[in-house]
Amino acid sequence: MIVMGCNSGGVKGEGTGGGDGRGGSLSDVLLEVGRSAENAFYAFLELVSDVLGFSVTTTTKKEDVGNHFKSLGVKLGKASEELEEVAKKAADSSKSQEVRGAVDLAKATLNTLKTNINLLETVGDDNVVGYANNVAGSGAAVADNELKKALRALQEIVKAATDAGVQTLKEGTITLQANGGADNKDGAKILATSGGNNPGANDAGKAAAILATVSGEELLASIVTSKESDAALTANASGDTTAVAFSKGGQADHLAGANTPKAAAVAGGIALRSLVNTGKLASGAADNATGGGKEVQGVGATAVNKLLVAVEDIIKKTVKNVLEKAKEKIDESRKPKTAE
């Protein structure tokens, strides 16, 4: 497991405790007139800096990712406590009700994020991320209850973001034959759960090529636009096949039956299969051979890392927007009245 500092997120000034060299807790920055909303966001980033930038390797277990989400939930709880401290410190002011209103609105969003991040803590198991068959053979679908839990949690996180004014996620449009290039539809065979036609030795490479055409944002969008009721494939995949349907699997020939499905949907399916309890990817060869379990697992880990980056990014954007709104209202309430 690799845990990096918040500068891996690429936000200039992170880790400076307020972005202007003056430091201070989140509550202090929010209360101080003259400190900007950006300063408040930097203070939040400092608060969560030791849990940002998490990524998985081939030795990371699914439950390790769950522990990361648990730690992130704890940090969001601490941010809520800092906001509550703002309301307490302003309790004796004439504008205490305005401050309380701003704090409660911000806390409500943070609590929604925390609740659903905590749900993601429980969806994995003790197998490695991207767990794959160690011989040529099919994989196994994810546990339905945990899949539903993960889907609902991600949908609620994204909804909280859009409710807070974050731009709607960009959906991927590239198909399994990107821009008329190589046809990578057979990469979807690593999601096979039944039938005798296992992935070929070259199909893990095609799955990796599919992932290379998809951003983390597009991958997350493909998941949250899925439905719980989307079923495993019993016929050829199409442009309407969702990430959840791909995660549930089916016969290899159906999964790779067309090049018209969205690459993001396949990528989302790989991420869910690689992260959620009982999920197992199909392999095209013995464990250490080309197209075997180790190579397939690496594809799964890549998909999960894209998902983790996207989730972290949308949480940061959500908190930034929420703190901007709270800071504006808190500053308005604390400005001295001008003489008539």
From TrEMBL:
In its keyword annotation, does this UniProt entry include Nucleus? no
User: Pfam families in the record, alphabetically?
Assistant: Lipoprotein_2
**How does this chain sit within the bilayer?**
Lipid-anchor
Its subcellular locations are:
Cell outer membrane
What protein does this entry describe? Variable large protein
Identify the InterPro entries for this entry. Answer: Borrelia_lipo (IPR000680)
Keywords for the protein's UniProt record, in alphabetical order: Cell outer membrane, Lipoprotein, Membrane, Palmitate, Plasmid, Signal
Biased composition of type Gly residues is found at 7-21
Gene Ontology CC terms: cell outer membrane
Query: What is the taxonomic lineage of the source species?
Result: Bacteria, Pseudomonadati, Spirochaetota, Spirochaetia, Spirochaetales
Outline what the protein does.
The Vlp and Vsp proteins are antigenically distinct proteins, only one vlp or vsp gene is transcriptionally active at any one time. Switching between these genes is a mechanism of host immune response evasion.
Disordered: where is this region?
1-21
Keyword Signal annotated:
yes
